[in-house]
């Protein structure tokens, strides 16, 4: 039972870590939702902003300035939190791989393997919390910024909804958290 639970937690952690990595690397955190003519599809990300022409499918991306340039706080904080969460989740996957009952590493020392699994669960939990805070931080900051402009009766003409990268970051973080709970509480 314990080995099956470990393998299930590993599979969930692997999939969720891939989701977190994809969310960090992709560029569709916010999507233009007010294009009533459906001429273009605009996505904002952590690293660049892309516009896709819906008529011919041509995609143009503008890279943000240097990583050291001044950026909005939401981008800097989200980048830092997601990259740190990715690194912690990757470290947890390596620890978990060594601690699985089905691997031959330290087979004669089951207590050490159990400690590796629990340590991986704690590390994965920390990475998941960082990823979730980063994803929610970005979403809430954009929502608050938009709400403040609407409250001041400033017409923007453009309204952004949460893109698939934002949802992928949240789903990956929640999956890592569930895998962490399985590893720390259920073994």
Keywords:
elongated, five-stranded antiparallel sheet, alpha+beta, 187 residues, Butyryl-CoA Dehydrogenase, subunit A, domain 3, 61% helix
Summarize the structure in words:
This protein has 187 residues and is of the alpha+beta class. The chain has a single domain, classed as Butyryl-CoA Dehydrogenase, subunit A, domain 3, CATH 1.20.140. It contains 4 helices and 5 strands; from the N terminus they run αββββααβα. It has a 5-stranded antiparallel sheet with strand order 4-3-2-1-5. α1 (2-25) runs antiparallel to α4 (164-185), α2 (73-99) packs antiparallel against α3 and α3 (110-151) runs antiparallel to α4 (164-185). It is elongated, with a radius of gyration of 20 Å. 31% of the residues are buried. The mean pLDDT is 86.
Indicate the topology.
Elements: H1 2-25, E1 30-32, E2 40-44, E3 48-53, E4 59-63, H2 73-99, H3 110-151, E5 160-162, H4 164-185
Antiparallel strand pairs: 1-2, 1-5, 2-3, 3-4
Helix pairs in contact: 1-2, 1-4, 2-3, 3-4
Gist?
The chain crosses the membrane at residues 80-100, 121-140, 162-185. With 187 residues, the protein is an alpha+beta fold.
Give the tally of structural domains.
1
Low-confidence stretches: none
Strand order of the largest sheet: 4-3-2-1-5
- Helix-strand sequence: HEEEEHHEH
Mean pLDDT: 86
CATH architecture: Up-down Bundle
Overall helicity: 55-70%
**Total strand segments:** 5
Q: What is CATH's topology name?
A: Butyryl-CoA Dehydrogenase, subunit A, domain 3
The number of helical segments is 4
Overall radius of gyration: 20 Å
Ends distance: 9 Å
- The coarse overall form would be elongated
Summarize the main sheet.
5 strands, antiparallel
What percent strand?
A: 5-15%
What is the class in the CATH system? Mainly Alpha
Structural class: alpha+beta
Subcellular location: Cell junction, Tight junction; Cell membrane
GO molecular function, one term: structural molecule activity
Family: Belongs to the claudin family.
Protein name: Claudin
């Amino acid at each position: 039972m314990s080995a099956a639970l470990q393998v299930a937690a590993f599979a969930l952690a692997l999939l969720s870590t891939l989701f977190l990595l994809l969310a960090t690397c992709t560029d569709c955190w916010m999507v233009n939702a007010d294009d009533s003519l459906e001429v273009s599809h605009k996505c904002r990300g952590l690293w660049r902003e892309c516009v896709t022409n819906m008529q011919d499918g041509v995609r143009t991306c503008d890279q943000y300035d240097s990583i050291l340039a001044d950026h909005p706080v939401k981008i800097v904080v989200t980048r830092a939190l997601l990259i740190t969460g990715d690194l912690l989740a990757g470290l947890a996957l390596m620890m978990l791989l060594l601690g699985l009952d089905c691997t031959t590493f330290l087979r004669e020392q089951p207590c050490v393997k159990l400690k590796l699994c629990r340590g991986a669960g704690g590390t994965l939990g920390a990475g998941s919390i960082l990823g979730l805070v980063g994803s929610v931080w970005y979403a809430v900051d954009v929502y608050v910024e938009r709400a403040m402009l609407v409250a001041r009766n400033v017409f923007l003409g453009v309204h952004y909804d949460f893109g698939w990268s934002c949802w992928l970051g949240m789903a990956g973080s929640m999956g890592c958290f569930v895998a962490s709970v399985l590893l720390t509480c259920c073994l």
